[in-house]
Amino acid sequence: MKYKEHRMQLWDQDIPQLMESAPTGTVTIQTKLGPMTGKINYLDEDYRKKVLTFYNIPFAKPPVGELRFAKPVPYGSWTGTLNATEIGNQCMQYDPMSQIPGVESTEDCLYLNIYAPNNVSGSVKKPVMVWIHGGGFVIGSAYAYDSSTLALQGDVIVVTIQYRLGIFGFFSLGKNGALGNYGLWDQMLALEWVQQNIESFGGDPSSVTIFGESAGGASVSLLALIPQNKNRFHRVIAQSGTMAAPWAITNATEASYAIGELMGCSKALLTSEFVKCMRNSDANTLLYRSLGYSNRNPNFINYVPEIGPVVDGELIKASPTYLMKTFSSEEYKFFSSLDFMTGTVKSDGNVYLLVMTEAFQRHYGINVTTGISTDQFCSIFVSPISEDLFKNNSLVSKEICNKYQVKNNVSEQSRQMVNFFTDVFFAYPAFESLSSHSQNNIQSSTFHYVFELDVQSFLFSSPPVWYIGPGHADELGLIFPFYPLSGQGKSVSAAVMRYWTNFAKRGNPNDPSLPDWTVYDNQKQAYLAINANQFTAMKYKERDMQFWEQDIPRLMDTTPTGTITIPTKLGSMTVGMEL
Questions:
Q1: Which domains does the chain have, with CATH numbers?
Q2: What is the pLDDT of residues 397-416, one digit of tens each?
Q3: Which of 73, 235, 316, 493 has CA 20 to 30 A from 556's CA?
Q4: What is the pTM of this model?
């Protein structure tokens, strides 16, 4: 398969062509923090459609030195006129296949970009949409998402923000002084900056919607469980990722100590000394050591990121699924007060094909291009996931295998494996968050969508043997048109942008020009099928959702257990035993 073929073409050909053909000018505005010069981008040849763009606006001081592995500190004002006409650098990461030309990875990366349609007005305030990018909490950049078209067509202010990634954003020792979640703190400070300053750009701080995809979807829904964020935003759109996803919370503490050992920072050190040792480490060396840790076993797939958000007792006080289902908690009260939209792409699970390296395939004797057998599906994929997510329960593993197996048909088995990945990592977590949010909720709205339109792939094109529909992140090309659209793609893109921006304006995506999108409740479970002809349907994958909601927990509850005492050199030990 051609890895990220379309993304390579995007940065190689499409973006340079757009940059060369788009007429521009500059504009200087006065903000509370000082004057700023941005760009005027005209999106048509007769200079009628324009978007003011302001790039590389600092919202936090560079997180270096004592600020590495610490909460971000507001940047404050600047001297002179800030040049906001050129894109800046991205946060520390290594992803050579999607590197943006001219953009470097650096710790000094806490910047945001603003897209304002037409003119900045002091009297008319526009709704604000803040985009948080995805990338598994280890890669991604705000600059990859040109929001000019979305801002202009929806008549909204769009802000794209950056946050620390990988070991730099989610280093955690699980102790005071190194609790972690610094990337989430970055997001929160950026949202605070928006509250304090967006009026200078014609934005309405009382109407802010946060939206994101994949790790960005998990981020925005985690932020919706943090009561400290009250009044920072009012609506949430979580695309292909929610707080209920098994990968939304990680075991970053184990990874942080292990990476520290690779850097020569002994685990035996006091917490403060360990942190000091890591702060004194060279940034590039730290990045590559963390990559070495992640790639230490080429025969293993990281179904869940090894470093990312953690339950820290401060921002995230307990398991997100527990918090969102505890209706008396302050976390749930805040979540339920927000208008909430979430959804998935039909074949979200195809993203896991990307991490099946050549070494992994050689080790297990499989070929991604030609597909897998039922035996390979059950032993190589279901078993380790059951071990990680379901306490190595053999009954659960067997039940999953039985449900998603297609014997003697490699093509169908391969497609069913994509369905399995989609259900367990994306579709069911979305279902959980929708069910929780809409439970007896009369103060805010809930909406569900499923993206089903065949479009140009954003990440990569699945081999035919795996293909069941659009894959992970494919909807992004319709919200942020990275490449020229035509026909169905162009019309559906216009509809999707209108639904999204309508929701941002009033918590309801509908208007008379669009097919009706019915609000979600736990009885009808309505969702919008986004394809060539958008329409409301009911109870998406009903039996599959029941399997994960009812059948698997029932097996976990009814599996008989006991204890056994075994002798050791130091005495005896009693352990649990599955019977």
A1: 5-363+410-560 (3.40.50.1820)
A2: 999 999 999 999 999 999 99
A3: 316
A4: 0.92
